Structures are given as structure tokens and as C-alpha cells.
Amino acid sequence: MIPAALFGTVSxxxxxxxxxxxxxxxxxxxxxxxxxxxxxxxxxxxxxNINRIRTSRxxxxxxxxxxxxxxxxxxxxxxxxxxxxxxxxxMF
Length: 92
What we know:
Number of strands: 0
Low-confidence stretches: none
Mean pLDDT: 77
Helix content: over 70%
Structural class: mainly alpha
């Protein structure tokens, strides 16, 4: 849980600090910060679900498969939200 929270927080700060335009229109900044908070919550819920499957059901194979699928899903959404969103908003 701690690496997911750390990654979401650091990327949130780094991207959010660079998105303030000259006119201080903070619409995109709020969206990226909201995306970062959802990233942190998604990472925490994934870890909690995997630990719950391992402890209550004793199903380590399914927990491993579920964790791997959720990890790649989270990586996709993190890259989409934290990298492609600011690039798409940049005016070339």
C-alpha cells in the first residue's frame, strides 16, 4: 500500500505543479489531482483485496492471478491519467 500511495502522491505533486497556466485556470490541475487521489485509493483497495483473498479463502493461486491482472490494469490507468492527460492538454 505504501508504494502505491507514494507513487500517486509524488506524481500528483510533480504534474500538478507544472500544470498551472499563466491565467491560473485550475481546471486541469483539479482533474489531475482527483485522478491521483483515485490512483492512491485504487492501489490501496487492490492490496486489501489481495490480502483478504489470501487470508480468508487460502487461495494463493487466484490471489496471485488477481494481483497480476489488477497490477497491469492499474499501470495502464496510471500511465493514461498521469502521462497522456497532460500531454493531450499541452497546446503544441
